[in-house]
Design brief:
The protein is α/β, with parallel strands linked by helices. The protein has helices at 2-24, 56-67, 71-85, 108-112, 119-138, 151-154, 170-180, 188-193, 209-224, 244-249, 299-309, 323-329, 345-348, and strands at residues 94-96, 102-104, 142-148, 185-186, 234-241, 257-262, 267-268, 279-283, 290-294, 312-316, 333-339, 364-375, 382-388, 400-403, 408-411, 420-426, 435-440, 443-450. The protein has three domains: 1-30 and 60-69, no CATH class; 105-348, no CATH class; 364-450, Immunoglobulin-like. Keywords: Alginate biosynthesis, Membrane, Periplasm, Signal, Transferase, Transmembrane, Transmembrane helix.
Length: 451
């Protein structure tokens, strides 16, 4: 009986220790966000207006869930066990593939074709790029767009067998429309998929340095018309890389992948802190021409190759794209790089640029109205008009014009809703008398715009 009783005591003691330990070490442990985490802040007793914070208990629960002691160690142990035994991960963001490859779950819709663009969306996404290209060319700047492929678009063989790759994806639908609308585009899918060398990290969502090199060479061949050579920049060493997906599921882990190391001669300005800066400026006296690049996280590895190849370069992570910032820099070319999983941003985040003027169209009154509202603009002398033609019969390939008293402007077919539009109009345009014109069954019609 004494032995049995001692066993119960030890068992209860172990369970109590496991329960108490995370709380006990909490004051001495500082949790840091990993991957794309946003950790909850410690709740305030009172709100900004001085009233009592009635949601303090829920907020403290969120705070504790993000900051309890040994949290990273427990998450890591849990995913190591589930990955080894069940061949899956207890993660809402990361998918375990074959041979311990990791994939971003947000790319599954692209991979399986679960959320394909409609014909209207494909047209609209390409048309937004076409309007950006038009604006750049009118200001003496070249334009080019490229898509950074999702990792599973190139390495489908490492995906779990339970997922079937779609035969058609949004990137292909958009590419078809860009060809029809003469948008300058560089296809990285073919270049990267035809290469036998591994070009993406196993435990990261991005291309590695060799993948970025090949992508840069493909882009530069189109942009500068010549082959770029970077092998001479390889210093013969390797650098350890910790994958972003690995950090999400194994935050206490220390495994790294060896990556090719380079020595570049381009110079960064004095404001540079890291490759993840919102804006980066570089110079290279050994190169010529200038480039402005709107990029995302794939630009971390891509940008030094481009910086090495241009006399002056500016790299920006600002979104929405501010086209007047590009004209202020006056580069020879604007390159827009966007990862495949975020192509829907072209439909949701309108580029900030003056709406181009168009020739008036003979549109018939539909006798209906659509909602629109005025918003502030970062561009001096303009205001932003956003609206939605939901309920209107708009042709899949129709532009959207804004009819003022004497002028006609074209809006970007993107924003919020099912038939959105966004236009940056001159301040002297009176929004009370604006109309939206569009093609319906091949004929121009218009509807009034109202708040």
């Amino acid at each position: 009986m004494q032995v049995k009783k001692l066993g119960y005591i030890l068992f209860v003691g172990v369970i109590a220790t496991i329960c108490i330990l995370p709380v006990a070490v909490m004051p001495w442990q500082t949790e840091k966000a990993v991957g794309n985490e946003q950790l909850a802040s410690f709740p305030e007793l009172r709100k900004e207006d001085g009233s009592f914070n009635t949601g303090i208990l829920n907020e403290f629960s969120d705070y504790f869930a993000d900051h309890f002691g040994l949290r990273h160690e427990m998450i890591t142990l849990n995913d190591q066990l589930t990955g080894t035994v069940l061949k899956t991960l207890d993660s809402s963001s990361v998918l375990l593939g074959k041979d311990d490859w990791l994939f971003y779950k947000s790319t599954l819709a692209d991979y399986t074709g679960a959320e394909l663009f409609t014909a209207r969306q494909s047209y609209a996404a390409a048309h937004v790029l076409g309007l950006m290209q038009e604006y750049c060319e009118e200001n003496g700047i070249g334009f080019c767009f490229t898509i950074a492929p999702n990792k599973n678009s190139l390495y489908s063989g490492q995906m779990p067998a339970r997922y079937t790759a779609a035969s058609v994806r949004n990137a292909q639908l958009l590419q078809q429309q860009m060809e029809q609308q003469n948008v300058r585009y560089v296809d990285l899918f073919k270049t990267l998929s035809d290469h036998e060398e591994q070009l993406y990290y196993r435990r990261d969502s991005h291309w590695n340095m060799r993948g970025a090199q090949l992508a840069a060479q493909t882009l530069l061949k189109e942009l500068k018309g010549s082959e770029a050579e970077f092998d001479s920049c390889i210093n013969g060493k390797t650098s350890p890389h910790t994958g972003d997906l690995y950090e999400m599921v194994y935050p206490a882990g220390n495994e790294t992948e060896q990556d090719t190391a380079y020595d570049f001669t381009c110079q960064y300005d004095e404001k540079f802190h890291s490759a993840d800066d919102i804006t980066i400026h570089t110079e290279n006296s050994a190169a010529d021409e200038s480039i402005f690049v709107y990029r995302d996280s794939f630009g971390i590895n891509l940008h030094p190759f481009l910086a090495q190849s241009y006399g002056n370069a500016c790299f920006s992570r600002n979104m929405p794209y501010l086209l007047t910032a590009v004209t202020e820099e006056q580069p020879d070319v604007l390159l827009v790089e966007l990862v495949e999983r975020n192509l829907n941003w072209l439909l949701e985040r309108a580029p900030e640029m003056p709406a181009p003027e168009r020739t008036a169209v003979p549109a018939a009154d539909t006798g209906t109205s659509a909602k629109a509202q005025r918003k502030d603009s970062r561009m001096e002398g303009t205001f932003c008009l956003t609206g939605n033609l939901s309920g209107q019969r708009v042709d899949d390939d129709s532009p959207i014009y804004i009819l003022a008293e004497t002028e006609t402007y074209e809006a970007s077919p993107c924003g919020e809703g099912t038939q959105p539009f966004t236009a940056y109009l001159p301040q002297n345009v009176r929004e009370q008398q604006l109309k939206a014109a569009f093609l319906s069954d091949g004929e121009w019609v218009f509807c009034a715009l109202a708040d």
